[in-house]
Amino acid sequence: MAEVIPVRVAIRVRPLNSREKAENSQECVQCFVEQSQISINGKMFTFDSIFDPTTSQETIYDACAAPLLEKIFDGYNCTILAYGQTGSGKTYTMGTEETITASSEGHGIISRLVDGIFKQIGTSDRYRVTASMLEIYEEKVIDLLCVNRECLQIRESKGVVFVQGLSVHPVSCLEDALKLLQKGCQLRSRGETAMNDKSSRSHAIFTLCIEGSETKEKSKLSFHVKI
């Protein structure tokens, strides 16, 4: 019997930005939060969750990411994927360009989840956490935490897919993770579009790997966030 991988899809509708307001643009999406539906040009679409433009970062995290914490420490791989056109709010929601001193109210999913992971680990010495970050641009895989931006190869061994030569970096706290995230974001491929003058032109994947040791055996717990 095939393994069942649960996937949940949530829609977040952002508010109009300053340019859209100046152009007197009108909102084209209606949200029906309680029914988990949106309406576009009179057509209804149903998803697992709907978040309207007034939704806070904390609410998004509590609904979409916080439930994964328990799964991570049970040994399950987890992925959070932000998908949408340029300017739709992916960077803000995930928090991929946050600074260490950024206001906690505006923190995105990544920093909140990493903070939750380290709070759960606490002072225990049973866990080792490492991070890596790559981008996929024009069908090339590039290590974003390596300055020379060398193209890497995707390999498979014994049913496990991995990126050969991808650098991994130890992290011991939220600040360590955000420093690596900032470094990787600075090296991402960018370009100007009609919607965004600093648009990221690649798909980026920020990965945390948690290794936990037991008394008699070692178990590897992995958490993957795709940005």
Automatic annotation (TrEMBL):
- Gene3D superfamilies recorded: Kinesin motor domain
Record GO terms (molecular function): ATP binding; microtubule binding; microtubule motor activity
Question: Which superkingdom?
Answer: Eukaryota
Which Gene Ontology terms of cellular component type are present? microtubule associated complex
Mind listing the UniProt keywords for this protein, alphabetically?
Answer: ATP-binding, Coiled coil, Cytoplasm, Cytoskeleton, Motor protein, Nucleotide-binding
One Pfam family named in its UniProt record: Kinesin
Could you tell me which residue ranges the Kinesin motor domain spans?
6-227
Compartment annotation: Cytoplasm, Cytoskeleton
Which InterPro entries does its entry note?
A: Kinesin-like_fam, Kinesin_motor_dom, Kinesin_motor_dom_sf, P-loop_NTPase
Location (main, coarse): cytoplasm
What's an example Gene Ontology biological process for this entry?
A: spindle elongation
Enumerate the residues binding ATP.
84-91
The text of the family note is: Belongs to the TRAFAC class myosin-kinesin ATPase superfamily. Kinesin family.
* Official protein name in the record: Kinesin motor domain protein
